[in-house]
Amino acid sequence: MHTTSNHARTLTLILAAAAALTLPFWASDQYQLHLAALIAVYWILISGLNIVVGFTGQLSIGHVGLLSIGAYGFCILAGKMELNPYLALAISGGLGGICGLALGLPSLRLPGFYFAMATMAFALIVNEIILAQVDLTGGGIGLVGPLFTAPFDTPSGFYYLVALLAGFATWLTWNIARSMWGKGLIAIRDNPVTAQAVGVPVFRAKLVAFVFSGVLAGVSGGLFASLQSYITPDTFVFELSMFFFVCIIIGGRGSIVGPFLGTVVLTALPEMVASLAKLGNFFYGLLLLVVVLVIPEGIGRMLQLIYERIKPREIESIPIQPDVKGLIQTLSDTVSEGGPIQVEHISKHFGGVAALDDVSLTLAPGEIHGLIGPNGSGKTTMLNLLSGYYEPSSGDMLYRGQDFGASTVQQRARMGIARTFQKPRLLPELTVLENAMVGAWSESTSGFMASAFALPGVRIEDRFLRERAAQLLVGVGLGGVMHRRANLLDHAQQRFLEIARGLALRPRFILLDEPAGGLTSVEIEHLGAVIRAISLSGIGVLLVEHHTDFVFRVCDKVTALNVGRMIQHGTSDQVRHDPEVIRVYLGA
Ligand code: ADP
Ligand code: MG
Questions:
Q1: Which protein residue has the closest C-alpha to ligand 1 atom 20?
Q2: Could you give all domains of the chain from N- to C-terminal order, each with its CATH number?
Q3: Given 3-state DSSP classes, what are the helix, strand and coil percentages for the chain, each rounded to the nearest 5?
Q4: Which residue's CA is the nearest one to ligand 1's atom 13?
Q5: Looking at residue 282, what is its pLDDT?
Q6: Which residues fall inside 5 Å of ion ligand 2, going by CB?
Q7: pLDDT at site 133
């Protein structure tokens, strides 16, 4: 299956490259060549914007502002100041990046809608500034877009230059998409809580992606000015920004081919079909409406579905079948020195409610610690405190003699605290293997730019993390469904995948929130075997669970809570026979 899809991809790539390279020979007139160059120039911007919108889920509608900054930068540098045009183009890219940083820093912390508004305001302000700075920008009259030097000064020469740069931009974004960064960005888009849990620095990752898109927008702007040979503020209308955005939405999020086809179709169609051009924005609006209603996941996903239709995949159910020995083998690289986590007299209040009140417990490496109690007794709150989603109202959490109660979720991930969620939080559009790999995010040392250029170190690390994630999946019993999209998993498989993702973090401690919820008795047996294997590897386990038989069977120590207070703690036997525990929780 995998190789066939790779062959199909390679063939498509070769055909597309051949078509692009020979275009000047078969284009029927200069106008078609101009159109092809325009598509390439737009795509350089859109490929970067795609990382921001399609992968990270940040709805920027202001990229036309970055385009015009690049365009004016290029005209001023290469035209007025007569700088070498290639150097001027590089500086335009730098300008785009700097302005991306200046826009992203204050706005990327805003929730989605406000972020979109901030980018729109940015585009409007840029246009006003350009209009006002008459001496520099020519105001309403505009500036001449300089040509590049030979051999790129003819229409076909220029076409080859932009096609080359567009191919390069595609390669960069494709590398990012398949790297750990790409998975981290998708996690930010689809499940920010998971992104934090695996250690993705959410704000910084958004910012890096945005600056990257700014550089490409700046380069695109310089090329755009040269192609149009004359620019005025009227060239950079806000509709152009909407056009970029629509290309990506129509193409489909999380895809590169889709938005590229979106760019080709949306640029070429209105130009080729005169009646469509007259419709203008109405045409884009209509197309957007049709796509959102008929194929909401966009062209990219539609192609994938057609491909799967031609070559249907068996979606037979594959039972979970852990390989405990293999799991222990894979986890043998666990570092278990470092001692226990000590939770001392912790309390957590929400308004007047004490979700936890003066609770203490110790998580030792290699020990399975059960946490039981009726609904609402504060079990999940304890997990949220340990993994950093909540800050304690009072009390200490100590590891290696240091209080880590105030550290961030990402810092806990790097400390080696992994967790699963009471309601599984997977990334539905990624495969099972990719979901497990995301868990290793904090272990990855690859930088964003190193990933964009797919440097050898990045490739080696990627192969290693993929291999280890695959071994973990086989270990917990999901080897047979590794290449399925996670949204095709049944409930039990989702729970086991959450555990595999947690283990990919290479944890010292793993916190499991009701992992047996909704499992059959056979699956619970498998879960028990997996949890024992985890603890045998030296990892400390905190097990929150309602299946008390199961808890008393697998746990070394148990803490029982009731409405936020600790009512008993000790060995399984001590707690199981405690009269108070029986009265409030176990029943007679
Ligand atoms: P459990 O997991 O044991 O069922 P929880 O830890 O989820 O219990 O909840 C314990 C108590 O804390 C409940 O009364 C719940 O309503 C309250 N609580 C938990 N999280 C919050 C929150 N973010 N805001 C307000 N109350 C909360
Ligand atoms: Mg809970």
A1: 381
A2: 34-238 (no CATH), 336-416+507-588 (3.40.50.300), 425-505 (no CATH)
A3: 65, 10, 25
A4: 376
A5: 79
A6: 379-380, 422
A7: 93
